[in-house]
Known about the structure:
Layout: E1 9-12, H1 22-31, E2 37-42, H2 54-63, E3 68-73, H3 81-87, E4 91-95, H4 102-114, E5 119-124, E6 142-146, H5 162-170, E7 176-180, H6 188-194, E8 198-201, H7 203-206, H8 211-231
Parallel strand pairs: 1-8, 2-3, 3-4, 4-5, 5-6, 6-7, 7-8
Helix pairs in contact: 2-3, 6-8
The protein binds D-xylitol-5-phosphate (DX5) and zinc ion.
Residues 13, 15-16, 38, 40, 71, 148, 150-155, 180-183, 200-204 line the site of D-xylitol-5-phosphate.
Amino acid sequence: MPWKELPLRIAPSLLSCDFARLAEEVADVEAGGADWHHVDVMDGHFVPNLTIGPPVVKRIHAVAKQPLDVHLMITDPARYAEAFARAGAHVLTFHVEVCADDAAVRSVARAFRDVGVPMVGIALNPDTPVERVADVLDALDLVLVMSVFPGFGGQRFMPEVLPKVVWLREHGYAGHVEMDGGLNLETLPRCAAAGADVLVAGSAIYGVADRARRIRELRAAGAAARAAAAQA
Ligand code: DX5
Ligand code: ZN
């Protein structure tokens, strides 16, 4: 399927939800039209923050109707592949920066598939060139282009990463391109226009009272920007 036919997906990042009310937060954004739940896993080593692990992901999966998009910001993703697969990760994404070379990328992707992960993704930090994944794209269902340095929600969007998304589409990558970090009503349309189809937003969605309205606004703004880019 050509990438322009991929529907825009809005993925609220649970990092900005009220963790004391996880099930209600999940249900609220689902009622509001969320396509995927973005779940940020941090190990305090690859990034200077700690969040949640497989037991919590498993409980999210138990209450969620929409797929879990699990973003692993951890140093040793292969070691935990089975735990996250069992916990119900639908998309499981690891960072290219933890891999020494292309063979290492392929080995992690294979480890994920071997335990039954439906979709395998790779993430790039803002200062990692997109060419780093040029020769492994055939092994990946999704490329996550980070638009902030990972570790925390609520940071400012870095527009200088947008050319990576354009590069992926110009080089014929037809899988999912996801963007994460600082997406809001002003920046998300730029991501959609560049060619991203999975759009993560934490504070822009969980930070407002009316999540349904915000998800609607984000989707409409993204669709309009994509259509305008297609005309240009
Ligand atoms: C950052 C995380 C993001 C974060 C996005 O390390 O990977 O998913 O939750 O939050 P916002 O949308 O607030 O930048
Ligand atoms: Zn994330």
